[in-house]
Every structure is written in structure tokens, then in C-alpha cells.
Write a structure and sequence with these properties.
Radius of gyration: 18 Å
Order of helices and strands: EEEHEHEHEHHHHHHEHEH
Strand order of the largest sheet: 1-2-4-3-5-6-7-8
Helix content: 40-55%
Number of strands: 8
Shape: globular
Strand content: 15-25%
Largest sheet: 8 strands, mixed
Distance between the termini: 21 Å
Length: 292
Amino acid sequence: MSELPRVQHRHLEVDGVDVFYRESVPARADAPVLLLLHGFPTASHQFRRLIDALGARYRLIAPDYPGFGNTVAPADFEYSFDRLADITEGFVRQLGLTRFAMYIFDFGAPVGLRLATRNPDWISGLIVQNGNAYEAGLSEAAQGFVALRPDHEGDEDVIRGLLTLEGTRSQYEGGVPDPSLLNPDAWTLDQHYLDLPGRKEAQLALAYDYKSSVARYPEWQAWLRKYTPPTLIAWGANDFFFPAPGAHAYLADVPDAELHLFDTGHFALETHVAEIAPLIADFLDRLPGAQK
């Protein structure tokens, strides 16, 4: 049987935010570090199976953002992607991380790429799983989401529809040929956190702010071209929001990136962790400075 890691669940205060995170304890103290940045509407629990698969060999660290999971933010916290990146950056600094690979998924892309452009020397490698940074990767549904405005009648209702159990479940099931591979506990737990006091208002603010991330796509693409980080792309090709062209678009700026498309939807780890985990292990082992 494969060795299972010891996983610690901790809290760290960052600028008044009680950040919850999970961290594996690998066998080697000098094991490569991988920062796991989750998406919407989930939290760090989306990485539990990946942490079990790889945590004995690598140091995997997965925080919950403000407004997600077990992280608790002050009542007056202003939700924007800049602020999520601020808290994540403070979290990284408090842990003393100075060089690590980064896994960006969904909301993890606008958070992580903000982090990367602020601190390019931190990033040893990039793993992209349905984390969009190109207009080519925005489906018609995603473009409609970006266009939502708080002063436009009916737009709030559209967002709130995504925050229901039906809306959450649909994000998991969309584009998945075999729904039996999906664990319903995932969307049930997501909905539990979405239904906590203040969480839907946080998600409304982030939904309206998503356009700020699209506006920064050129900046992130320029960062990719300048630093050309080692990059692994593992993408659910049937994603209703971020379809396969978003994966291919990275190759224009990081032509040596390794690209793998999977016949699944947005939450590719839910159905293909057995295929993706070995790709990640091989990628981490090949990073400059990685100990074999």
C-alpha cells in the first residue's frame, strides 16, 4: 500500500483574518513545496485526495481564502481579488516560504498570478488546472458572468442562482461523462460553507470584481513570457466556464509547457486524480533544484 502522509490542520492570523490551512508533512525536510490555491465555490478540502496521494513525498500547503471554507474574516473585510491575494501573500510570508511551485485552479489563478507578479522570485513552477488567464479561455457563460454589474437589474439573481445547492452541484457535474466518479460530499460541503452567515454577500462582491482579473490578463501573460516558469497544464476539456482553448492559450507565452487535456469538467481532480497526481510528481521532481 502506498504510504499515506501525516496531514496537519492549522490556523494562522494574517491581517486580522484567521486563515485555516492544511499541510502535509513529507518524509524529507527538504521536499519540494507546492502551494495549492483552490477555486470557487470550494475550499482547500478540494485537494484532500491529492494531498493523500502526494503528501508523503512533497510538502503540500492548501489555505482557505477569506469567505471560503474554515477561514474566518472580520465582518468589515472588503472582498476583492486584490484582498484575497493580499491575505495569501501574507500567509506565505508568515510561513517563511521563499521558493515553491504553485497549483492554480479557477479563482486560484487570479489569486496566484497576482502573487506571482508581485513576487516572481518565489515561483519555481506553475501547475495550471482550469485556471484561466486568457480571453480565449472564457466561454460564453463566463463572459456573461464577467459582464454582471451590481447596478443592473437581475444580475444579483443570476449570481445567487449559482450559490444554491443546484448551482453548486451543476459545477461539478457539468461536462463529466461518468457522474458516478463524483463524490456528492464535495458539493454538499461546499454548500455548507456557502450557507454560512455573510458568505453569499462575499461571493457577490467577488463575482462583481472578477472583471478586475480579466483586465489583468495582459499583465499576467507578460509575466509568463518574461519568466517562462516550468509549467504543467492539466485541464478538464469539457469545462463550461473555462473550455480547452484556455489551456492551449498558455502555449503562446510558455511554449515549453506540458499540456494534458482530460475528458471531464471543471473539477478535474474529482474524476482524474489518479491520472493527474503522477504528472504532478514527475513535474515536481524535474524542477530546478529538486532533490531526487
